[in-house]
């Protein structure tokens, strides 16, 4: 379970860490905070506002947000900064970057920072589903912040027009195919004007693919991040089902479907059902000009989804005072009231049960219950694909998925090739 400081040296370090903040109240500690978004837009205003609010409550600490582009841009910039001796103090990075950050000795375990019963209780306060990509080796390396699952959105108007119950989403793979056939529309020339189902396969194809593999009763990797199972029969069957939505059933766009344009296709009635992150919930609520529903993903052998999104990490190459201040900021960001407001503002899942018990969240879901879908789906969630040398392993799988979806390889050949490459990459970690 949770480990406290052991030995006199660590005990002395803990006392010095606390004293460092208390002894120099006049000297503000400045923390760089890398956040994965391009500059501008509502998210940056929210983050800037949170930083300002924290500074008002904690005048001895200054927060400097650095907007660092996409998640991929951010991890690249962070690793470059770490190697150059100029690492940030705090960063929001994909939870799947955990092993990479550990292998680079870039981050510190939260277990080595907390010291009081209240802090240890805080460390245990998050949904277990989100901790699957936050803990390894008995330690916690990331704190859930903007976390998500994959959910299904459907256009209730198109359901009515197709003679379907607009209040009931497909519950199984078989129903998904049936609904998709009834929802797919073609013009007089036979060209599709509305696809029944759309699952994006650019950007994060492995993540959307995990919905199918989890529903088919298999995980893609082991808990230690040293093995993958891409060529197992259940994985190949799951990929065959995804391919068949287009080639066999004709209810899904052919080839690679863009991640970024999928919500827009939904708004424009080009797709009746889409799979995407619950983090798109606020975007869809604000921009869909029709009544829509949100549901758990349909079951194959079982229900299932990977978790997703970003964790808060504290970097190791900083002073004791900086780490203490960083821990205070992370605790502040993840407090129930703030986690609830962040979920309301963005559509991400509030990361702790306590956040859902706040009056603010209760009022929100009483008026708009859709956010509870992703929360309730956590009981069926598995860890997002994460291994050592994760970016290269993930690329091997993504390349295989896109080869199968575009028809250049069969699902079996694509997954066998991806597994062969993953084994080559991970051999050194076993």
TrEMBL record:
Chief localization: periplasm
Gene Ontology CC terms, in alphabetical order: periplasmic space
InterPro entries, per database record: Bact_solute-bd_prot1, SBP
Matches recorded under Pfam families: SBP_bac_8 (PF13416)
Transmembrane segments: none
Signal peptide: 1-28
Location in the cell: Periplasm
Keywords noted in UniProt: Signal
Protein family (similarity comment): Belongs to the bacterial solute-binding protein 1 family.
Protein's name in the database: ABC transporter substrate-binding protein
Organism: Pseudothauera lacus
Phylogenetic classification of the source organism: Bacteria, Pseudomonadati, Pseudomonadota, Betaproteobacteria, Rhodocyclales
